[in-house]
Amino acid sequence: DGTEELPDDKSFVDDDEQKQRQRLLVKHLGNMGEKCQQLIRHYFEGMPGEQISSELGFSSYEYYRVAKNRCIENLKKMIHADPVFKELI
Prior knowledge:
Layout: H1 9-30, H2 34-44, H3 49-55, H4 61-81, H5 83-88
Helix pairs in contact: 2-4, 3-4
């Protein structure tokens, strides 16, 4: 009959929420220092920690791990403080 099935309203809402979450991540990642940005991007891309540590010039793998945790925690704090995030929860 040529009619197409449209996704239900919930899938539209889920998709919109996902896009808003992605925008929040990109927005706040862009507000971080260059080294944190690079570290988090490599981490999310699945690059091994040892390689990130070496590529970004950390003095040790342990120092990289501390920096990664600090950067991710700061990113989470910025996102959670954003009024848009509060609307999503």
